[in-house]
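Obj.: predict assembly geometry.
Materials: sequence records (below).
Method: joint structure prediction, all chains together.
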Amino acid sequence: MTTTTLNHDEAHHHDMPTGWRRWLFSTNHKDIGTLYLLFALTMLFLGGASAMLIRLELFQPGIQLLDPDLYNNLVTNHALIMIFGAVMPAAAGLANWMIPMMIGAPDMALPRMNNLSFWILPAAATMLILSFIVPFFPGGGTQINTGWTLYPPLSVQVGMSMDFLIFAIHLLGISSVLASINIIVTLLNMRAPGMTLMTMPMFCWTWLVTAFLLILVVPVLAGGVTMLLFDRHFGTSFFDAAGGGDPVLFQHLFWFFGHPEVYILLLPSIGVLSHVIPAFSRKPLFGYKSMVGAMLTVATIGMVVWAHHQYTIGMSLGAVTYFMIGTILISIPVGLMIFNFIATMWRGAMTFETPMLFAVAIVLMFTFGGLSGVMLAVVPADMQYHDSMFVVAHFHYVLMPGAVFGLFAGVFYWLPKWTGHMYDETLGKIFFWTNVIGFNITFFPQHFLGLAGMPRRIVDYNMMFTEFNVISSIGAIIFGLSHLLLLYIVIKTIRGGKKAESRAWEGAKGLEWELDSPPAFHTWTVAPQIK
Amino acid sequence: MKFNNNFKRQVNHPMSVTQQLINNQSYKLKTTSLTGILVAGVFFADKCRAEYGINFPPPAADVAQEIYNIHMLTMQITTVLLLIVFGFVFYSLYYHRKSRGFQADQDFHNSWFGNWSWVVVPVMVLGVDLTIAGKADAVLKKVWDVPKAENILDVKVTGHQWWWEFDYLDHGIKVESRYVPEKESGDLYLREVDNRLVLPTGQKIRFLHTSADVLHAFWVPELAVKKDAIPGYVTETWAELNREGVFRGQCAELCGTWHSRMPIVVESVSPQQFATWVDDQKAIKVAAAAEASADKTWSMDELMAKGKTLYDTKCAACHQVTGVGLPPAFPALKGSAMATGSIEAHLEIVIKGKEGTAMQPWGSLNDLEIAAIVTYERNAWDNNTGDVVQPSDVKQAR
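Observations (raw C-alpha cells):
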C-alpha cells in the first residue's frame, strides 16, 4: 500500500487563493466539494419546480396548465435534472469533501482532474436546459416528449432539442467517469498508513463500488445515445426495423446503464447511513464485513438484471424467468443491509437529531419501496403494474428515501464540520417532518392509481382517478415548498450559529472528527497513523 | 374544462347483487385514512373494489384471475415483512433511547447472533424469495405460452399515433378505434372510443401486437394483458374471456403528444352475438367497397361532406378540426403550401406519409376516402382552391 506524506513546510506554500480564481481554478477537494453541493442544490430546485408543475397539471382531470408536449418535456427534464444534476453531483460533493478527510489524505489523488470533472457540469447543465427551452424559439423544432428513457422511434421524431440532450448526456457521462476514476485512485492509493480496505470507513466503500459501477455502465449509455444521434442524422438504422435495426436494442442499452444507475444513486446514501446510525445509536456499525459483501453482491447482481424494466417487450419465457429470479434475489443483499442498520440501532442509546430522523425514515420507507420492488419483479403481476402510476410510486419510494434522504442526512450530519456552525435543530426537525409527511402524501396514493389502471406519463385522466391525484398534488405542494426551509437552514448555518466542536456529535467516530470545525484549507498534510 | 363534482364512476362490469352491495358499502369507506386503506386493500381487497379503485378491477379471464391472486399473495407477504421491520424498528426506537437511560450494548455485534446473522438473514430472505418465485413461475408459464388451439381467434392489434387498429385476421374485418371527445364521452372521458374491440367469450384469442409508428402498449386490466407494440416486430399475447362486459384500458407506453388519448375498450359478448356482429361488419365493408369502386363522378358537396367526417376522425387529432395544426410538430393545413399547391404532392403525402415525422401513410384508405379527405382539405377553412379530387385521380396517384 502506498501512502503520501507531505512535508509540513511544503504545505504552507499553497496559500488560499481568493476571489473567483479560488473557485474556477480550484484544486482543493473541499472547495470542489462545496461547488458540487451548491450545483446540486440549484438543480434540486429546478427539478423540483418541474415536478411541482407536473403535479399542478395533474391536480384535476382536463388540461389546464401545460400542453401535452410541454408536460412530457417537463417529465423528461424532471428525471434528468434530478438524477444527473441533483443526486449524482450531491453524492460527488459529499465524496469530495469527506473521502480525503476520512482516509487521512491531504486531497484527492488527481486534483486538476477533479477541477475538470466539476466544471464540465455547468456546461452540461446549460445544454440540458437549452434542450428544454430551444423549442420555444422560432425554428426550434418539437419538444422532447419521450420521458427520460428516450425510447426510439419517438426520440427520432423529436426536433433539435434531442441533439442538445444527447450532447448533455455525453458531457455528464464524461464528468462522472472522471470523478469516478479520481475517487478510485484516491481510495486505493491515499489511505493513511495502517488503514486497510477492510477498515476504511463505510462511506468510502460505498463510493468505491459506486465509482466502479459508473465506469462500467456510463459508457454504455453514451454509446446508446450516440447510436441514436447517428440514426437521427446520419442515415444509420440501429433502432429502425425498416433498415434491419431494432427499437428494443436501445432499451437494452439504456437499461444496462439505467438499472445499475439506481444503485449508483443509492449506495453513497447507504454509506452516509452507515455513519449516521452508529453515531446516534452510540455503538459501532453492525456487520461491517457483511455490509461490504452485501454491497458487492448488489452491484454484481444489479449489473445483470436490467431487462426487468422491459418485461412487456416480448422476451422469451426463459429470458423473463431469468430476469425475474435475478431481480427477486436482489432482496437478499438489500435485506441484509436493512437488517444491519436495524441491528445497529438495536440496544443502542439513540437520540434523534435531524440526521438520525432521516436515517430512521430511510430504513422504514426504503424497506417499503424495496418490497414494492419485489412485487414489480414478479413478471405475471408486472403485466398489470408495468408503466402504471404504481411504478412511479415505487421508484420514488426507492429514490427519495434511498438516495435523497440519505444526502439530506449527510448534509445535516456534516454541515457543522463544513461550516463550523451547528444548524438550528428545531428548524431541522420541522424540515424533516414536513418533508417526510409531504413525501408520503404525494406518493403513497399513487400506488392505488396504478393498480386501478392509470398509466404513467399521461397529461390528462378520467374522473375515476381524481381523488388520489388531488391528494397527491396537495402532498406535492407541501413536499416541494418544504425544501425552501432546507435552503434557509443551510444559508443560516453558513452565515453563523452556535460554534461546532471538532467532534460535533457525541457518538461520531472517524478521522474527519479529529479535525477542526471548520477544517483548515489543507488538512492531513501529515498523514495520521492508524493503529 | 368543467367537470361534474358529483362524479359518477363507470360501473359497466356486470356484477352480482352481493358484490354490488359490498361495493356500495365500501364506497362509504372513502379516504378516511391512508393506512386504513392500505390495510383494507391488503386484507379485504375483494370488498374494496370501490368505483374510484384502489386495486385491480375484477378479472375477466381465468389467467387474469391467477395474476390477481399472485398479486395479492406477494402484496400480503411483503406487507407482513414490512410489519415485522416496522415492529422491530419501533420497539427499538421506543426502548433503546438515551432519554430512557438505556446504555448502548457495545458488544452486541460480537454475540453469536452478530457473528452468524450474515448467514441467517439471507437464508430467511431466500426462503421468502423462493416462495414468491415458485408461485410466480407457474403463472408465468400460462401467461407466456400462447395456446395452439385450432379455433383460436387471431386479432392483430396495431398501435398508431393516436388510435388503435384491430384486424380480425380470420374474418377480414378491420376496426379503427379512436378516443371520443369529452362532450360525447362525459364521465367516460379518455376511457371511451368510437368503435370497440368486440370479442367473444369462451374462445381463446391471440393478440398480435405491432405498431405503425412509435412504441405503444396494449393494456386492458381486466384481461391482465399488457404488451408493447413495436414497429417492425410482432409480439403476441392471449386471453380467454370468461364473462361478458365492457372492459376499459389505455395505452401504457409513452407515444407522444396524445398518449393520454388512446383508450382501449373491449366489449365482451356471447359467441352468438359475436357471430352476428361479424356478419354486420362484413356487410358494411362490402357496401363501402362497392361505393368506392363505383365508376361515378362525385360532386364537390358530396366529397366535402364525406371529407369532413373522415378528416375530423382521422386527421384532426394532429392537424386540428380548424386546420391550424399544432406547430411545429403538426403543421397547419389552413392556407398551407401543401393544401393549396400541387394536387399530386398533396395526394402523395397523404398516401405515402412523410418519413421521420408523425405523418403516417394513409394508403390503406380506399380511393373514395382519400379523394374526399384531399378535396376537403383543399377547400375547407378558406383554402377554397376549388379543386375536386375524384377517386379515379387517387387510383392514378397510387
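Conclusions so far: Confidence is low (pLDDT under 50) at residues 1-11 of chain A.
To do: check interface contacts against the pulldown list.
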